[in-house]
Amino acid sequence: MAEAANELGPTTPYGKTLIKVAEAEKHLGAAERDFIHAASINFLTPLRNFLEGDWKTISKERRLLQNRRLDLDACKARLKKAKAAEAKAATVPDFQETRPRNYILSASASALWNDEVDKSEQELRVAQTEFDRQAEVTRLLLEGISSTHVNHLRCLHEFVESQTTYYAQCYRHMLDLQKQLGRFPGTFVGTTEPASPPLSSTSPTTTAATMPVEPSVAGLAPPGEAALCLEEVAPPASGTRKARVLYDYEAADSSELALLADELITVYSLPGMDPDWLIGERGNKKGKVPVTYLELLS
Known about the structure:
The protein is 58% helix and 8% strand. It has 298 residues and is α+β, with helices and mostly antiparallel strands. It has a five-stranded antiparallel beta sheet with strand order 4-3-2-1-5, with no helix packed on it. Strand 2 and strand 3 (277-282) form a beta hairpin. The radius of gyration is 35 Å and the shape is elongated.
């Protein structure tokens, strides 16, 4: 616009108008650059650093804790099964029978299951220790989330204040331009009043300061990780399989399906699901089930 004004004549009404509009556009561009810079420093950079740093670490540790819980449940199931077999093998034989070879076999089986129980108990102690250690690590990480949320709330308010200031500056620049154009002879401006109602007398800072602040931020739920709505989940037209349950599994919440060893269920996967989990169906019940507890059948 400035170059066109110099070529057409900066002293003509059209040239003067082009120059004034060009100056106003420069002011708008400067205000936009200031807003983008402030938004990047006050809000976008802290949020990006949190998502790419602390939040990734927290998500990784939470997933590791979930795997430790599955390992612990599996160890408990193996110990329960070994103790049941040991008790069955230790049943007192009928001494009226004259088959001493059966007594020897029974004693041997009892000793084998006794060793299996000892091994299972040792594995359970190790799994419990690893689970407790991982739970403590995850707890310490989650305790820092509250202070992080407070900081991000402050950053969000500063972002809103910057945006409010930016739009107020743009409105003021265009209002001044409209008034200046109204004083030029030969310009097609019907009125010197602003085309839109003026801003409220409340300053941008005051307006931003009166915005309601939530006392707390919603819990962790990973980003991009929506809660599974089982009522809306429908099995795919193809891709369902039968699976045999290896161990008993107790559901941790309503989104999971409790399992009994040796039962058959129908399983399938949904787009975006954690690869360690499947959707399982048994009758009219459905829920998430861990893959490590299943034997997929052809």
